[in-house]
Each structure stands twice: as structure tokens, then as C-alpha cells.
Amino acid sequence: MDSIIRKIRPSEIPLLSDFLYEAIFVPAGSAPPPRDIIQEPELQVYLTDFGKRKDDIGFVAEVDQRIVGAVWARIMNDYGHIDDQTPSLSISIFKQYRGRGIGTALMKTMLKELQDRGYKQVSLSVQKANYAVRMYRKAGFQVIEDKGEEYIMVGKV
Question: How far is C-alpha 99 from the chain's CA centre?
Fold first, then answer.
């Protein structure tokens, strides 16, 4: 399956709401949270005014002219925040497109962009039980804090 990775267009920024919801880890056998959970203030930091700050960076993955994944980063006080010089990263792929290398391609594109912009590292928060931990480790991320059910991870860029 061929995918195209490209910068997010301003008209596509509202799609990040869908990808934020998709990024919420739901353990096997658990019911997903209600869709309006993304309206909570601690999740709105990922979306509010995205694209209006110089450090807002976003890419999407397209398959057959449909956006199926997104990665975005910004400096924000989120679950993965470590300092005000390190962007926090969010990445999400629609379920039916996972396991096909799209997440890895999005991640590589973002890491290269962050490096080109002079950032030294990027952080994220991930539930320990989330299969994505493996992808983050393969991309060079290391656990810098164990917070019980989740890790704070940092990747050098």
C-alpha cells in the first residue's frame, strides 16, 4: 500500500481532532471513551490554535487520496512535556491502516523536520501497554520517566 507523507494544509487542521481521538489508547476488552473526551482542557492543548505558532508542525499520510494518519508537534504543557524547548509529539493512524509502515514514515518525516528546524529532541507520553512503544523505541526514543501506567519518552533529532 503506497502512502504519501506531506505537510498538513491549513484546511486539514480540523482533522487533527479525529486523530487525537484515535490516539487515545484503549486496552483490549475496554470500551472506548466518549468522543467528546477530546474537549477536556488537558487534551485541547494538542489542538487549540494549531498552526498559529511558529513551533506548530504537522504532517499527514494519504492513501488513495484519503488522509489516514497524522503526526504533529508543538511546544505545549501536555502529558509528555519536559521543558519549554522540547516539542511534544502526537501521532495517530486509523486502525485499518496500522502495521503497514505509515507510522514509521510519519515519524521519520517529523524527526527530520524537527532536526532541520534546530530542535535537539522531541518528547511524548505513551501508555506502557500501547503497542506503539515498540515503534518509538525503534525510532530511537528512550524512557526518561516511568509514571506508573505510562512512559515519558524522548527522541533525539
Answer: 16
Where do the DSSP E strands lie in the chain?
4-7, 57-63, 66-74, 88-93, 121-127, 142-146, 150-156
Number of folded domains in the chain?
1
Could you tell me the residue range of the domain that residue 103 belongs to?
4-156
Averaged over successive runs of 10 residues, the pLDDT of the chain (157 residues) comes to 93 97 92 95 96 95 97 95 96 94 96 97 96 93 96 96
**74: nearest Cα among 127, 103, 27, 110:** 110
CA dihedral of residues 6, 12, 16, 138 (deg, nearest 10): 0
Question: Does the global pTM surpass 0.90?
Answer: yes
Cα dihedral across residues 87, 115, 63, 127: positive or negative: negative
